[in-house]
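Section 3.1: Structural characterization of target chains.
Under the original work plan, the team committed to producing a structural model for every single-chain target entering the pipeline before any wet-lab resources were allocated. The record below documents one such target. The sequence was received from the expression subgroup and is listed exactly as submitted; it comprises 70 residues.
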Amino acid sequence: DPDVAKIERATDRIKYGDGRTYVPDLIVTRQDGSRVVEEIKPEYQLDDPTVLAKAAAARAYYAERGIEYR
């Protein structure tokens, strides 16, 4: 994708559940400087309660920072 300037491992430690932490997979920086955080999971894990809890926490964390999470 020519819009992608850089792909890096994410390093943010996000709290979820009862004090656990999780680190998303990737941060993609676009040519315009905007960023999107990507979490990569196989389809069979998408309904897993732990995966859903992590995703909800990450969405809230990044929304507060103006960063897209998907």
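The first strand starts at residue 4 and ends at 9.
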